[in-house]
Amino acid sequence: MAATEKRRGGDAGAAEYVDHCVHSFNRINQILVDDHPNGYPQLAAFMDSDSNFLMCRRFGFLHSRVLLYRQDELTDLENKLIDMDGLDKDELPLALRSRKIDDERNDIEEQYTRKTLINTIDQKLKEYDDIVRRVRSFVSMKRPSKRNFKSFYDWILGIKPLSREETDFVKHGEDFVALADAEEGGWFDGVVEDCLSCLPGGLAKKLLTSPEQLKKSDDAYVHLYSKYRVDVIVRLTLTIITVLLLMAPTAALYLVHGHAKLKIVLIVIFTLLFSLALGVFTKAKRHEMFAATAA
Fold this sequence. Notes:
Layout lengths: L1 H28 L10 H10 L5 E3 L2 H32 L2 H4 L1 H6 L9 H27 L5 H14 L16 E3 L7 H12 L5 H6 L2 H4 L12 H29 L4 H22 L4 H9 L1
Antiparallel strand pairs: 1-2
């Protein structure tokens, strides 16, 4: 009996410990965006609340200036190397045929030797290659959608987490890039969200917002929608549109009797509509669109 009571007491203690851990875990994960101190902490929390808000400036003008500067430095060094080769062609041709002879020459100061010049060029090439890679990486990034940037812009100007001077960065909208990969048909997802947002009684929030997202912000003007839930609704919508585009011409041709020209016109129209839907709602490449239309 005592052993049974002891085990029950142990089970109760273990249950209390588990409940405490669960409560602590939930409390940690319920930190709202608004709970962070106003300023950069709150802005960082807001950007982290949804991948659509992960965006930053690419500083395209500054990257271009640095690129042009490094390019001109290398142009000068290139001209110096060509001039040096031209002088040695007439005065010391063996220096062009042997690196050892060129390195061991003592007719000029070390700072003006070809070895020193080559090392300088190598260092400048590394700097140039680095800026080229950085520019290329930013160029390959997509711009945030107008809808996402407007949400980001409105939140910053509405909440005002930063000083006026340090808020100016958001006014360079054309210079922003999205850090998260764009979703397929992302604009259509936005259309679906906007349409559902018009539903009365906060129905959109109940349909599109997950319990985890509800815990991220108490702000009535901040709406965080689950990408999974939006994607499900979008896929259902596209499925209906696809079925209509495939079945509508069949029904139309069935109802039209004895009008060959009209049938051809209907086939052309629905084929064009299918190609248009494929190009608008998906990221299909040109050859994929051609193959799907031909099929």
